[in-house]
Task: structure prediction
Amino acid sequence: MRYRALLCLLLAFLLLGQAHAQAVEMEVVVNGETLAGEAGDGVTYVPLVPLMEALGSWATTWDREAQAAAVETDLCTLSVPLGSREVLVGDAAYQLNGPVIGRDGCTYVPLRALADLLGAEVEYVDARTPVTVTSRPPVDYTEEDLYWLSRIISAESQGECLLGQLAVGSVVMNRVASDAYPDNIRDVVFDARDAVQFTPTANGAVYWEPTELSVLAARLVLNGASVVEDCKFFFCPALSDGTWIRENCEYHTTIGCHMFYR
Result:
């Protein structure tokens, strides 16, 4: 049984390596540092260690037994297992847009998903132009900002995965950055000029103690994590028809029980 499991694992890595070998070389510039990236199946890959060094001077270690890299960032510990489509952020799983690949002794990771998580913006023009990755400037936030952001994330998306909770927090921050909404988190959360914008402010759920995962999500979003681009709206189809949003906004993606719109 153990031999069969090892054989299956070896075959999986061989297949991943074969797919990766067919990738096209892609130059990636991260905060001014040039990395040798590769693109395949619509995903740009970069080596993990230089990516972490360029984004935050974060050191990476290797767990041979778990076949996973570990990175201690300023906010959390990342565990990056070979062959997985998820990384662990502390104890929470975060979905990637492709598998983690091991080749030539290096760990290659999907660029965009990790950049979104770690507060960096990715600009892709075409296959002939280097991909540029730039860390977003740190947000000067207060404990009150963290208080309300973590509570609205928890009230709106408690039970959702980390990606879903980051998406809700990203919508709040997208509104803060927009001229069409108030310029601080509390006022965005309680905004009711046209109608109540977030149901938990009406039913009282926004005052409940947030989960640990929601606090982590809020800290990551305040650190620059942004996973739904310019989306400023979301709703849960199981609880609302979302008629106005459907008729007036552009659909972007669905994460967990929520649909997100620009």
Observations:
- The two ends are 50 Å apart (CA to CA).
- The longest strand covers residues 33-40.
